[in-house]
Amino acid sequence: MNAIVARAHNFSAGPAALPEEVLREAQEELLEWRGEGASVLELSHRGKAFMRLAEEAEASLRRLLAVPEDYAVLFLQGGARLHFALIPMNFAAGARADYVLTGYWSEKAFKEGGRISEARVAASSKHSRYVTVPSFSAWDLDPGAAYVHLTPNETIHGVEFHDFPDLGAVPVIADMSSTLLSRPLEVRRYGMIYAGAQKNIGPAGLVLLILRRDLLERCPATLPEILSYRRHAEEGSMLNTPPTFAWYLAGKVFAWIERQGGLEEMERRNRRKAELLYAAIDGSGGFYRNPVEPAFRSWMNVPFILADPSLDELFLREAQAHGLLALKGHRAVGGMRASLYNAVPVAAVEALTDFMGDFARRHG
Amino acid sequence: MNAIVARAHNFSAGPAALPEEVLREAQEELLEWRGEGASVLELSHRGKAFMRLAEEAEASLRRLLAVPEDYAVLFLQGGARLHFALIPMNFAAGARADYVLTGYWSEKAFKEGGRISEARVAASSKHSRYVTVPSFSAWDLDPGAAYVHLTPNETIHGVEFHDFPDLGAVPVIADMSSTLLSRPLEVRRYGMIYAGAQKNIGPAGLVLLILRRDLLERCPATLPEILSYRRHAEEGSMLNTPPTFAWYLAGKVFAWIERQGGLEEMERRNRRKAELLYAAIDGSGGFYRNPVEPAFRSWMNVPFILADPSLDELFLREAQAHGLLALKGHRAVGGMRASLYNAVPVAAVEALTDFMGDFARRHG
């Protein structure tokens, strides 16, 4: 069954491509898993078999990112969006919080944050239409803020940054939905990292949180239990039934990354893929264009426009016919976007750049 | 691949058994779905293919339950537990709300509700250790309550009821996690029905809401968007990325129920399964015992104890060896529990009752 399947190159921004090996393993054991007499979909999260899986997945993630012992790892639900609200509820209810705006998603986080906390813009590149990151000297940081919120990779605007000013005692909380696991990371620079799974981690419906345990003491005791990070940490992400299949697939993705050579190897591949695609864009003589300042171009999400937007539909139709899927840009910025997450092989980007070159020759 | 798999009879309370047909379909298309060139796990929720799936699933659910036009159907995340908090946040922030306590889960809902609203116990069978449902004459209802919260099936205590007093203009909000789709239902009696998927609907990580649209006007505009039922309804459950694979599997489960003959057929089978198991318990001469008042015995979750608890471990070990899984009772009540959701066939219950009879003969 499915020995031959017609899988195309998938550049979706999320839910996104998963490693084919992971899908094949999941397929093989979808009816019966590890001799349990049932699918992993059908097992209690409190049973021995699932508990072991859960621990293995966490251990694998901790190895990949060298997560320090004093950080908790949580497997929760709700998408990053739920956490736009839960972060201020847990850490800044009625208090001040700083936000750095570098695109669509940091704006959304700021707006939700403002419904709970005294959210304040510490820096913004909105005036540039989010094609850059505010220079450190322009960051107006509040030393009394409960946290500073960053979005190190903007999935829609294709802006990425991994350096930031020394923030003293103010914890950095970073939405890394579209960049976590794409390269090594110094976890200790962050108070909390969170990421929706549907990019580099697994299927939609799972959110990873990596957070310094001492911050959990700030979670108000008056919060409903289900909104409290402290309660989730105390219960090992099993305060309620977790999204078990998503957790299982995420564990398989972590193991796949380890087999490939870890985050150093992901970095090598992702750098290569990004270089290939940006070179094709920049070398097209203006046929294609990416507006982002080169130092802040995302490795993961590459938006580009055609000089002649009347060719957009033809480009997408022909790309699809060449087995190049999901290249339409987000409605907020238009044009095209190729997302190059870990599961997208270099060969897929080569197929894309070949097609782009050919298309430009025929229509340039 | 997997032509022969060793699947046992699975009595898990949730995540629970899924129809084998559904799992086989999902397995068949796990690498490539509907000619899309990718797994359904890898597709954007905003693409045509997934949007069609989402609409098909909702239409199927609406047919099954004859959901009136003026009710919205939402596919959300967070487990029923998240909604213990969101229900008062949306409908009773700072206002009064009534709760009827009939077991472990209604107590949890009440406690979370009390952190947001002036939650009040309108009736409780706690004094009986939750083996019955308070008689209607004892319900002390507040005509000014924002809602009355009911738990028509208590998954742990095995108490079920589907009738309730006339509540006038006060909307009934019902946690039907473990009973929705087990039999026909008059949706119009409820202001809102909600259910975690991992019993009769699909995998963990999805929650269904069926709610009267006029109630959405009560959702405070000051709520963070992601916590607002009004915003979720306005965006067709796609305010953020939904748990796409869970939605897909739920759609397959709905279609499977329709093929089986709909909720009338589920009711016939579920009644038969419950009758078989309760008859085996009651006819065991006291070897097994279910404490619940017969009129309120759950069709879905059947807790039972052995007169001699020193046999518990042996019972579980032998059951497992007979291919009868997940019979251990919840830690809150101990003993055994068999959950008989839609995907558990009559033959599984026959195998269980045969084993129980044999075990009692050997150890009675």
Could you describe the 3D structure shown?
The first copy, chain A, is an alpha/beta fold and 364 residues long. Chain A folds into two domains: 26-259, Aspartate Aminotransferase, domain 2 (3-Layer(aba) Sandwich), CATH 3.40.640; 261-363, Alpha-Beta Complex (Aspartate Aminotransferase, domain 1), CATH 3.90.1150.10. Helix content of chain A is 34%, strand content 16%. Chain A is built from nine helices and 14 strands. In chain A, the strands form four sheets. A seven-stranded mixed sheet of chain A has the order 2-10-9-8-5-3-4, with helices on one face. In chain A, strands 11-12-14 form a three-stranded antiparallel sheet, with helices on one face. In chain A, helix 3 (79-91) crosses helix 4 (104-113), helix 6 crosses helix 7 (262-282) and helix 7 packs parallel to helix 9 (346-363). The longest helix of chain A has 21 residues, at 262-282. The interface between A and B is large, with 69 and 69 residues.
Distance between the termini of chain A: 44 Å
Total tally of structural domains of chain A: 2
Biggest interface found: A-B, 69 and 69 residues
Q: What is the mean pLDDT of chain A? A: 96
Helix content of chain A: 25-40%
Reading the helices and strands of chain A in chain order gives EHHEHEHEEEEEEEHHHEEHEEH
Tell me which CATH architecture of the largest domain in chain A applies here.
Answer: 3-Layer(aba) Sandwich
Structural class of chain A: alpha/beta
Number of strands of chain A: 14
What radius of gyration of chain A results from the CA coordinates?
A: 21 Å
* Dominant shape of chain A: globular
Specify the number of helices of chain A: 9
Largest sheet of chain A: 7 strands, mixed
Oligomer status: homodimer
Could you name the ranges of chain A where pLDDT drops below 50 across 5 or more consecutive residues? none
Strand order of the largest sheet of chain A: 2-10-9-8-5-3-4
CATH superfamily of the largest domain in chain A: Type I PLP-dependent aspartate aminotransferase-like (Major domain)
What is the strand content of chain A? Answer: 15-25%
What CATH first level of the largest domain in chain A would be assigned? Alpha Beta
CATH fold call of the largest domain in chain A? Aspartate Aminotransferase, domain 2
